[in-house]
Structures are given as structure tokens and as C-alpha cells.
Amino acid sequence: MLGIGIDIGGTNTKLVVVTRAGKLLAHERFRTEASKGPASFLKRLAAAVACFRRDYGRQLVSIGIGAAGDVDPERGVLRFSPNLAWRSVKLAGPLEKLTGLPCAMENDANMAAWGAYEIELGRKTEDILTLTLGTGIGSGMILAGKLYHGSTGTAGEAGHLKIVPDGRPCHCGASGCLEAYCGSYSILARARELIKNEAAFVKKFSAPGKEKLNTICLTNAAAAGHAGARRVWAETGNYLGMGLAGLILVLNPGCVVLTGGVSRARKWFMPAMQKVLNHQQIKTPFQKVKVRISDNADLGSYGAALFGLEHGLK
Ligand SMILES: [Zn+2]
């Protein structure tokens, strides 16, 4: 039995074919081009699935979709996605009709959480919190071995926990959210406030041909000893620790998995983050929890495929 996993992002849509054991057999990606509308997107998605079916035939038994946004998993509807600028779009049902395969759909961070549970932890830890650290912050929870949805499917909006009263503006419209401090757009905005000459900074710390102020450039600067860059990462770790401390107190997870582009700067933000966790007054959950980083950039699509195999067939 093979499953197809689909990760729908604002820029790209990734597809994978994996075995029940999580072995990758094939992958494909195309530009989401959300502005062309859901009908065009579904047509291109179904065409990509049809290519896999030519290669794998009846071995393919299910599809799992992770989509960036607020998802109704029961009805397979993307209620709202700021990244795609879509509202109330039915995806799972139409894709089932177009492909003839059962289809399970979830928020993309939930699928990354399922991927962490199956692939990173081999189902050995049953209570897991996953944070996807990218432009924004997503989160998903596996509790007692089950994906936790909450009452409306929206559980896991940890990126919008308020950690600073009247703080920085967040993409969600509120202010002071965790994402407004630890999402890459905020990390870079705080860096810009400290860097005196951005052009010179970018030239010095970017890879040749990729001259841009991004989190990789900021990590290179920290590694080279730039005080401002190190300060930005330490502050990021401090804010992340504040958000995580609250989540760990509520959920008491056995493991926290951090993934996404920003997590590659672990060396520079983890010490400050760990310091906040070490200084909590209620010690037990913090002594027990393991924080680990997943460098698997396809955790979301792998997780979607495995989740589809587990749940799409029911
Ligand atoms: Zn927010």
C-alpha cells in the first residue's frame, strides 16, 4: 500500500509517494499559483496525481493533504488561508472525485506533527508538540497518539499566543503574538533595526549570488561574531522560550519538535530558549520534555501521506 502526500503552501505545492513505513518513492512539485483560483489548482493537482497513478497503479490507495490555513477536516474544506487568499474552498471531496482515491485533509502544521510522530519519533512518544518555524509559526499536537483537532479543527494556533502586551504587529491583525517575534519576517525586521548598513551586511554575510537579508544571512553573521545578529537570535530564543513554556505547562508533552527554516539557526537561539525553560517554577514537565529539531524539509508532505494511509481509508 502506498500513499500520496500533498503539502499546499503559498508558493509551492509538494507531492510525495511513500510506503507505509515512510520510505520515499517519488516526489513532484509545482507552483501553487493560488491567484488562478481553486478550479485551476485542482486540475493541476489531479494531473500530478494521475502521473503517479501511471507509475504505481493500484498500489496507491489514499491521499493526505496538508494546507496552509484554517481547515475543516470533517468536510475537507479550507475555510480560510491568508497565504493563498482563498475562503471556503472544498478540496478533499473534489480531489476524491477527480482521482477516485480517498482523501484526508488537515492543516499543514498538523500534518508536520503527524510526520514528526511517525518518522522522527517512530510512534514511541505519544504526546508531542510540533512547531513549524518559518515566515509564520504553525503548530500541531499529537496527544495520546492521536492528532488533536479541538472543537472546530483549529487547535494548534500557537503562533498567535500573545506573549508581549501591546507588542509588535502580527500578520493575523493582532499584536504581540509569538509569530510577531519569532516568525522570520519579525526576526528580520528586528535585525534591520540593529544593522547600520544593510547593504554592506548582506554583501558580507550572504552566499555569493544570493545577496538578501534572510535568516541564513543572519545565521552566517552570528557565526562570524556579529554582535547585532547574535542579539537578535538570543532575543528570538527568549521569546520562543516564553511561548513554549506556556505550551509545555498546558500540554506536558514528552517531546517538542521544532522544524522549518528558522530552526536551522538552533545554535544561536536554543541557549536562550533553554534558559527560559530551565527557569520555570513548576519543574517536572520541563525536566521531562525533550526538545529536538527536525531537518526534514518534507515533514509536512510525508506526514500527510502517512496520515492519509492511516485515516483516509476509514
Ligand atoms: Zn497573530
Q: Which molecules other than protein and nucleic acid are bound? A: zinc ion
CATH level-3 fold name of the largest domain: Nucleotidyltransferase, domain 5
Q: Could you describe the largest sheet, including whether it forms a barrel?
A: 5 strands, mixed
Say how many strands there are: 13
Low-confidence stretches: none
Envelope shape:
globular
Tally the helices: what do you get?
Answer: 11
Instruction: Label the CATH architecture of the largest domain.
Output: 2-Layer Sandwich
- Please state roughly what percent of the residues sit in beta strands, choosing from under 5%, 5-15%, 15-25%, 25-35%, 35-45% or over 45%: 15-25%
Strand ordering within the main sheet: 3-2-1-4-8
The name of the CATH superfamily of the largest domain reads: ATPase, nucleotide binding domain
Helix content: 40-55%
Distance between the termini: 14 Å
Rg: 20 Å
Overall average residue pLDDT: 94
Describe the model:
The protein has 314 residues and is of the alpha/beta class. The protein has 2 domains: 2-118 and 298-312, Nucleotidyltransferase, domain 5 (2-Layer Sandwich), CATH 3.30.420.40; 124-293, Nucleotidyltransferase, domain 5 (2-Layer Sandwich). Helix content is 41%, strand content 23%. The protein is built from 11 helices and 13 strands. The chain has helices spanning 38-56, 92-99, 108-120, 179-182, 184-194, 198-205, 215-223, 227-251, 266-278, 284-288, 299-312, and strands at residues 2-8, 12-19, 24-31, 60-67, 70-72, 77-81, 86-90, 103-107, 128-133, 137-143, 146-147, 255-259, 290-293. A 5-stranded mixed beta sheet has the order 3-2-1-4-8. A 5-stranded mixed beta sheet has the order 11-10-9-12-13, with helices on both faces. Helix 3 packs across helix 11. The model has no long low-confidence stretch (mean pLDDT 94). It binds zinc ion.
